[in-house]
Amino acid sequence: MSDMKIDAVRSSSSGVLGRARSESRGYHLVLDSSSRPQADAFTNSEAFLGGVSSCGVTLIEMHAKESGIPMTSIDVTIEGARTAAEPNRFATVTMTFEIAGVSQAQADELVATYRGR
Question: Beta-carbon neighbour count of residue 44 at 10 Å?
Fold first, then answer.
């Protein structure tokens, strides 16, 4: 198991109902419940979606650099929709990739690389 990478996050109550404080490697993040009426921080759902979309950005950036593809910037937008009947599940998730500095064929290849991992 020496080739195993382990990521760990510890979350704890913050003293505010519906808000948690998370910590990893000395970095701190405050997250509000997605069901909290007035969210003042990123919600749990937004943080989850942000993890997925930021993975798309960083993976594609690094792959483009390693492959010699002259990408100049990337924006990834992700939207998750949940029904009132099942608020704990995403009914649909849609990601949109906007990649600058490349041809359409190169953009398609970069997105295909992300989808394949």
Answer: 19
Q: Are residues 5 and 18 in the same domain?
A: yes
Q: How crowded is residue 110: how many other Cβ atoms within 10 Å of its Cβ? A: 23
pLDDT, tens digit, 9 for 90 and up, residues 62-95: 999 999 999 999 999 999 999 989 988 999 999 9
C-alpha–C-alpha distance, residues 22 and 63, integer Å: 30
Which of the 8 DSSP states describes residue 21? E
Q: What is the DSSP letter of 85?
A: S
In a shared domain, residues 37 and 59: no
Q: What is the pTM of this model?
A: 0.86
Q: 27: domain range?
A: 1-42
- Which of 49, 61, 60 lies closest to 95 in space, CA to CA? 49
Question: Both tokens of residue 65?
Answer: 């650099």
Domain count, the chain: 2
